[in-house]
Each structure stands twice: as structure tokens, then as C-alpha cells.
Amino acid sequence: MTARNITTMSGFLLKGFTDNHELQVLQALLFLVMYLLGSAGNFIIITITTLDPQLQSPMYYFLRHLSILDLSSLSVTVPQYVDSSLARSGYISYDQCMMQVFFFTAFAWTEMAILTAMSYDRYVAICLPLHYEVIMSSRKCTWAVAAVWLSGSLTGTLYTASTLSIRFCGDKIIHQFFCDVPQLLKISCSNDYSGVLEVSTFVTVLAFACFVGIAFSYGQIFSTVLRIPSAEGRSKVFSTCLPHICVVSFFLSTGICAYLKPTSDSPTALDLILSIFYTVLPPTLNPVIYSLRNASLKGAVKKLLFREKFIGKNYFSSVVHAY
């Protein structure tokens, strides 16, 4: 679909990474592999934190919802891009684009909020262990997660409502593989996006408050850890905290680089690579990061896999004996 045709339609043309069809197919396959790996990893974490009775603490409760969030976030952008790339059409309808804006902004804020809740959980567990069960009771955790998801929905609604007020004209070409808000602002035919800027400012202030909360939590955690005389005790604390620090650092650094970097009318390869770093890689790598140093998670995964293998072997044997 050409830019000339897209001007007469209500949708947009996603330019993606290249105009070469062979490269588009290769990139679509790479995206598909990352999507399948990320989906499988997050699904495994959701399964084991739901079924394993030893993984029912608030830490794993929040991790389960983070994996649900990551699985959903991957599904917002990647399948549509893979489909349009293989079909040699970058077209996305106006309604589909607005849906992407809603879910992407909602999930992005929800991830920030749930990472903040997870850092507070680690702070209470390490710095206030005697009060942990009272402060992080199951009821309070449920309310916290409900508030996190609700705040994400409100953020997505505000972004979508303000984006709907923007008028688009001319060549409605988005130099991205999904409907990213900054790219939509660049193709607005008038300066009518003050509402989006106001929402962005408001969300940025809230995100900074979350960052301060996370930094305070880990400042207190490290201060407490340094006073632990046992090397084994310090190792146990780091095994649960370091994965979360890695996830938070990766998410914030890529998002800040992408959104605070000055935009240009001709996006570079760096712009597109950064978009992958804050959209596709975090939800794909999160299950790996959380599993590397967490002995409980690794043990649960092995137990799940071996149990399925054992069940499958018993089922096969029973079928053979039946005949």
C-alpha cells in the first residue's frame, strides 16, 4: 500500500524497519520467535506461581501479575506487525491504531506501578520483617493489584481520549512498527495535541514519584543488607532483589532514552532499535531474569517439567499396556 493511497483512507501506514520485502519477512520471523519465547516464559511463570503451593507469597503474587501484564503487552504490538509484514501491507485501521494506543499506554503505566509495588514488598520483607504479614496481607495485596490495573486503565483512557481529539491529514505514515503516541503527534496536521502533552506531563510526574519510591526502597534495602553479618543471608536477599533491580533498570532506561531523546522527521535505525528495547525485549526477558537467580522459581519450573514428562511417560505406558 502506497503513501498516496493511505491519504484517502482513515487508517495509517506503519513503515516499520525497511521497505525490502525479504528483510520484512526475516524481521517478522524474528519478532515471531521473540513473541513465542516471551509468551512461553511468561505463561510458565503464571502457571507455576498459580499451582505451586510454595510460591504463594506476595512476591510471587505480584510476579504473576507482572507476567500476565508482559504476556498481554507483547500481544498488543507484535502479532499485528508480524501479520502486516508477511502480508506485505503496513496498513492499520484508525480503530486498531487507537486500540493499540489504549493498551500500550495502559500496560506501560501498569508495569511501572506494579514494579513499584514489588519494590515496596521487598522493602517490607527485608527492612520490616516482623510486620511483613500485617503490612503485606493477602487482602492488601489484592487491593494493591486492583489499584495498579485500574490506574493503568485510567492512563490508557486519558491517552486515548486526548489522541482521539487530534486531526490527521496528508501522508499518514507512522515511522514505527506500532501506533506510538510520539509518532502520531508528528503527523498531526495542526497544533491540537495539547491534551496529549498534558496527559504525558501528568503521567511523567507520577512515574517520577514511582521512581523515587523504588529508589528509596532499594536504598533502605541495601543499607539493611550491608548490616547482615552472614554472607549466606546477603546472598539470599540479593537473589530476590537483583532480578527486580535488573527489570526496573532495563524498563526505565530504555523508556527514558526513547521518550526523552529528541525526535526527528527522519527516524534513524537507533530510534527503531530503541522501540524494540522498550516494547518487545522487557516482556520477553523478564521471565529469564527472574528465573536466573531465584532458586524457588528454578525448582518449581523443573518440578513442573519433570512432572509433565512423568505424566506423559505414564500415559504412554498405559496406552501400550492397554493394547
Please summarize the sheet with the most strands: 3 strands, mixed
Helix content: over 70%
Radius of gyration (Å)? 22 Å
CATH topology: Rhopdopsin 7-helix transmembrane proteins
**Global geometry:** globular
Let me know the CATH homologous superfamily. Answer: Rhodopsin 7-helix transmembrane proteins
Assign the CATH class: Mainly Alpha
Distance between the termini: 58 Å
Question: Mean pLDDT score, rounded?
Answer: 80
CATH architecture: Up-down Bundle
Q: Main sheet: which strands, in order across?
A: 2-1-3
Count of discrete alpha- or pi-helical segments spanning 4 or more residues: 12
Q: How many structural domains? A: 1
- Secondary-structure element series: HEHHEHHHEHHHHHH
**Poorly predicted ranges (pLDDT <50, ≥5 residues)?**
310-323
InterPro entries: GPCR_Rhodpsn, GPCR_Rhodpsn_7TM, Olfact_rcpt, Olfactory_GPCR
Membrane topology: Multi-pass membrane protein
Organism: Rattus norvegicus (Rat)
Family: Belongs to the G-protein coupled receptor 1 family.
Describe the protein in words:
Mean pLDDT is 80; it is low at 310-323. The protein has a three-stranded mixed sheet with strand order 2-1-3. Helices cover 77% and strands 2% of the residues. It has one domain (3-322): Rhodopsin 7-helix transmembrane proteins (Rhopdopsin 7-helix transmembrane proteins, Up-down Bundle). It is mainly α and 323 residues long. The longest helix has 34 residues, at 94-127. Keywords: Cell membrane, G-protein coupled receptor, Membrane, Olfaction, Receptor, Sensory transduction, Transducer, Transmembrane, Transmembrane helix. Its main location: membrane.
